[in-house]
UniProtKB/TrEMBL annotation:
SUPFAM superfamilies (UniProt xref): PLP-dependent transferases
InterPro entries: PyrdxlP-dep_Trfase, PyrdxlP-dep_Trfase_small
Source superkingdom: Bacteria
The protein, known as: Aminotransferase class I/classII domain-containing protein
């Protein structure tokens, strides 16, 4: 889990384009993390991700989207966040 958490942090910190659509809450080597969305409703994004990209997430409130990185292989994490980014851009 720690390796995956570190990979997620690396992905989020090294892709400045993500800053235009979200920030992220601090997290450790647990099972999930949360994005704080900017100008996009979390529930709308959750539904769009599921229906159009086959990606399941949890909307906690109108701005926070929970991502369970523990169920994603480390080599697929970058693809996951690219899909989330693309879905967010679809809605913005």
């Amino acid at each position: 889990m720690k390796k995956r958490a570190n990979k997620v942090k690396e992905i989020l910190l090294n892709n400045e384009k993500y800053n235009e659509v979200w920030s992220f809450y601090p997290f450790n080597s647990g099972y999930f993390m949360c994005l704080k969305l900017k100008n996009i409703d979390a529930e709308k994004l959750r539904i769009h991700l599921l229906e159009n990209y086959g990606v399941g997430t949890v909307s906690i409130n109108s701005t926070d989207l929970r991502i369970a990185f523990s169920c994603v292989e480390e080599d697929q994490l970058e693809d996951l966040f690219e899909l989330i980014y693309q879905a967010a851009k679809d809605l913005s």
